[in-house]
Amino acid sequence: MGSESELVRGDPGQANGVESDRLEPQKGMNTVTRPRILVVGAGFAGVECVQRLERKLAPDEADVTLVTPFAYQLYLPLLPQVASGVLTPQSIAISLRRSRKYRTRILPGGAIGVDLKAKVCVVRTITDKIVNEHYDYIVLAPGSVTRTFDIPGLTDNAFGMKTLAEAAYIRDHVISQLDLADASDDPAERAARLQFVVVGGGYAGTETAACLQRLTHAAVQRYPRLDPGLIKWHLIDIAPRLMPELGEKLGRSAQEILKRRGVDVSLGVSIDKAGPEEVTFTDGRVVPTHTLIWTAGVVASPLIGTLGAETVKGRLAVTAEMCLPGHDGVFALGDSAAVPDLAKGQEGAVCPPTAQHAMRQGRKVADNVMAALRGQPLQPYKHKDLGLVVDLGGKDAVSKPLGVELRGLPAQAVARGYHWSALRTNVAKTRVMTNWLLNAVAGDDFVRTGFQARKPATLKDFEFTDTYLTPEQVRARVAGEALDQP
Ligand SMILES: Cc1cc2nc3c(=O)[nH]c(=O)nc-3n(C[C@H](O)[C@H](O)[C@H](O)COP(=O)(O)OP(=O)(O)OC[C@H]3O[C@@H](n4cnc5c(N)ncnc54)[C@H](O)[C@@H]3O)c2cc1C
Which residues belong to the signal peptide in this entry (predicted)? Predict the structure, then answer.
């Protein structure tokens, strides 16, 4: 993925609302005879796939295009540390244009529909133009979005923890609650602004509650008018245990750490209703709060629904080779696909939505795309989980690398060591390490940037879930383009 892949436009044309001005590769590339590989999504799965294709494909073997709304790959596991201000947002946004020698054409936009029969992906560019991208092979890696339920007020009043903008927004929001409480003389308003609710006791929610609680605990020292006792964090989950994937003992350790820090953990509880100034729990409690962070799981990107193909709990049903049955040249992986988990050896088991699976699947899909291109047999994906690391901030962590249960500093060393080594570039590694050292030496800082002040802040605003077409709209747009051609 390099700066060589500049974009230029062909002749603009309009057909039934579809702009057929496909963004053409520059420098006289012969795109007529070369197969076109289209990768959708520049996350863990998409970037691994593209990198391997770039390394292993001869330049004249195929053209590779990457559709992505952002110019970076987001290292999601460290997002709670951005929300709590330990890391700057830029340190976990890893540039896609890091080197001159890569040749992938990057199409800045989001895929909003795929017509499998016509082999066309409809893309909304970042300037809101709709373009049709024709492909011979497509790799679908658009990841997932926050899973919501039909709870009154939820989608209007909850924040997610899935994008860089959400993490930066939450940081400002939490600090602004302290500022507003400090300025207020109304005891009820003060109490409401200083209560925070996180829903979801998986690793994302637990890390988020833990890291943000540390931030408010440190910040309140700088607000002499505020009673630290008023600050209250709630972490709730409908499940009976925190992070069940860690096992009972480590889950309990994490719960004890949070309890010791004053986080109120309620299990077997969800929310009934969410408003701008209060949240009602299913156990009847009404918590006055202006902060509801919703991390109760993820669901495949809405792009998958536009295919009209079989899904498993919303994820695209694919074979162990990550192919879509009945459609040559269609591959899917990562959070958006239900890839059979062969390492588990259980009928119907699918790989959990984790970064380690997405990265490894990305490499395997690249190999399979090349095998398909060269008429060679495809290989199934098989990988045993390496474990989980959970950074609760400061010296607190729980980890289970290769089945070994760790707590405290050893767990923290493993967690940070793992994430640090998994960052793709030396620049990102240096930024993250510098931020960690600075935080350890100088402590937290409590700057509210105001970059996103007064901007709409609902889940759909951050995750663009309302931008997709229906399968019928996709077909109509593609058919319109075909009619328009001489
Ligand atoms: C807070 C948090 C903490 C986590 N911690 C861990 C952890 O500790 N360990 C672990 O293994 N996993 C962790 N995960 C899960 C892990 O991040 C995901 O499983 C992983 O990112 C999935 O990779 P992916 O490539 O499928 O999707 P992503 O990495 O999410 O990438 C999807 C990409 O597609 C882009 N995209 C979305 N829609 C479109 C579209 N329509 N068109 C084009 N591009 C699109 C997105 O912008 C994104 O760049 C965590 C997740 C979160 C949210």
Answer: none
Does pLDDT of 389 surpass 70?
Answer: yes
Any ligand 1 atom below 6 A from CB of 70:
yes
Question: Which tokens belong to 142?
Answer: 């658009």
CA distance 422 to 438: 21
Please give the average per-residue pLDDT across 232-253, as a whole number.
93
pLDDT averaged over every residue in the chain: 91
**Which element (helix H / strand E) includes 255?**
helix 248-260
What is residue 24's predicted lDDT score, i.e. its pLDDT? Answer: 46
What's the gap in Å between 381 CA and the centre of ligand 1? 19
CA of 297 from ligand 1 middle (Å) equals 12
User: What type of residue sits at position 479?
Assistant: A
Domains of the chain: 7-75+92-146+299-384+465-484 (3.50.50.60), 154-295+387-463 (3.50.50.100)
> Residue 61, exposed/middle/buried by CB under 10 A (0-12, 13-18, 19+)?
middle
CB-count exposure of residue 305 (10 Å: 0-12, 13-18, 19+):
middle
Q: Which residues pair with 107 in a beta bridge?
A: 67
Rounded Cα gap, residues 257 and 411, in angstroms: 13
User: In degrees rounded to 5, what are phi and psi of residue 76?
Assistant: -55, -40
Q: For ligand 1, atom 4, name the residue with the nearest CA.
A: 77
Listed residue (338, 327, 329, 328) closest to 304, CA to CA: 338
> What separation in Å is there between the alpha carbon of 426 and the centre of ligand 1?
21
Cα separations (Å) of 486 from 47, 55, 181, 483? 37, 38, 66, 8
Question: Looking at the predicted structure, is the pLDDT value of residue 374 above 90?
Answer: yes
**Contact between 303 and 142 (Cβ < 8 Å):** yes
Give pTM, 2 decimals. 0.92
Task: Count CB neighbours of 359 within 10 A.
Answer: 21
Cβ atoms within 10 Å, residue 310: 12
Most confident of the following: 14-28, 30-44, 459-473:
459-473
Distance between CA atoms of residues 411 and 422, nearest Å: 16
Angle 326-362-310 from CA coordinates, rounded to 5°: 30
Tell me the C-alpha to C-alpha distance, in Å, between residue 219 and each of 175, 185, 261, 446, 452. 8, 19, 15, 6, 21
